[in-house]
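Quick entry between incubations.
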Amino acid sequence: MSRFGDATELRRLGDGRYTVDLDGDFGFAKALNGGYVMAVLGRAAVDASEHAHPVSTAATFLRTVQAGPAEVIVDVRKTGATTTSARVTLVQDDRPVTEALITTATLDAAAEPTFSGARPVPDLPPPGDCLDFADGPGDELKGFASCVDLRFDPAAMGWLSGAPSGRPEMRAWFRLRDPHEPDPFVLAFAVDALPPVAFNAGADGWCPTVELTWYLRALPAPGTLQVHSGGRLVADGWFDEETEIWDSAGRLVAQSRQIARLGR
Amino acid sequence: MSRFGDATELRRLGDGRYTVDLDGDFGFAKALNGGYVMAVLGRAAVDASEHAHPVSTAATFLRTVQAGPAEVIVDVRKTGATTTSARVTLVQDDRPVTEALITTATLDAAAEPTFSGARPVPDLPPPGDCLDFADGPGDELKGFASCVDLRFDPAAMGWLSGAPSGRPEMRAWFRLRDPHEPDPFVLAFAVDALPPVAFNAGADGWCPTVELTWYLRALPAPGTLQVHSGGRLVADGWFDEETEIWDSAGRLVAQSRQIARLGR
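Done. Structure below.
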């Protein structure tokens, strides 16, 4: 196994129930990372399905997730030849903390797109010209930085020095330190691994995600991922964040959108 | 009331249970429209909440929805001062047919955005220069056309005459015929009211939506809505579709993304 594999490993209790020991380094003191939680829920959904991949995951974050033991409950709602859909709930202290509707299917690793949109603009500078997350200030980041190697495009990191770009945006190279090559569960983690795009539109503080939906679009090639995030509207205490992940072979492998609260 | 109001009206049975009589004109023979179903689920979620608006709706379409009686079950999963989140399920013939996680909150009609992205390109031609959905071929469209006035940008309608644009796209002016001015439930309907964008990327036939998540971003002004849809990837039997709705005051009021199966 690997660090990430261990951190998302489920013990099957039967009847769609699992236990997991959540690793506190995949997140921060305030709460574990939502993408990490989605990776755990995705593994449970696939385990309870005849299909191999979590194609669609729509997660609602009800309460903050804490490190330590949790239960995962899978309630299959439809079983089909092409897809299976289930409610998947993470439970801590007898309360639902994250709930997702997950549809599994089996993607074809050899499928070629009939249409693929343009790559996000601007492209990322080479990793050596990017800001290393591990060099960031504060001990609070050390645990997370021990799990994942993130290199940020400096053009979208002005918020760190009080000069946000004015647009909701964030871009980074992403790889697990294990090393653990990308798979669909790593993508679940990666779609929510960057700081909130609203930091570049003047927000700061804790910006809790309320809902995040991500789609697996292709099986990722080995190597470093590119994560590109933007947003369309910051208003009335809410902002959206759209993320695309492109793999080392230059393919769009995951897309997500989330809605979150502005920091308070 | 209005046609749309009647078609989404719920009878409260208590304990989070409702009945509804689904209007077959809000859809086609094969299945009712997914956006219409989301409008019904959104009304139930708001009724069961202390908050006024369905801010986030993540719907999984398990089985085709048929005209006639249905039950709606709301199971509140978290109640908070700012948001309430619930599972909302449409049941027909004792089976779940659509299931959604819906988060309600109360938006401020007077809120001004601190950031708003650019309008989609290209803009729509004036309605008089657009293709009227009601002029479309076939009796199957008549019921739907009696509910909604849709005027399509001809530049993205080449698929009708066997000349698709080659890009997943679709754009239209939208208003209910009632008349019933836009509200959040009308937006739920509008985000899924256009033909699949994949028709412009060579697809045809029945393209069932598997999952659709939409966010309410502002309360819409009275008047005609602009619906802009695009997509990023068509591959391996799947395509995504992103929709933005702009109101008559020029504001982004709703955004959605769905993943659907290519027609068979």
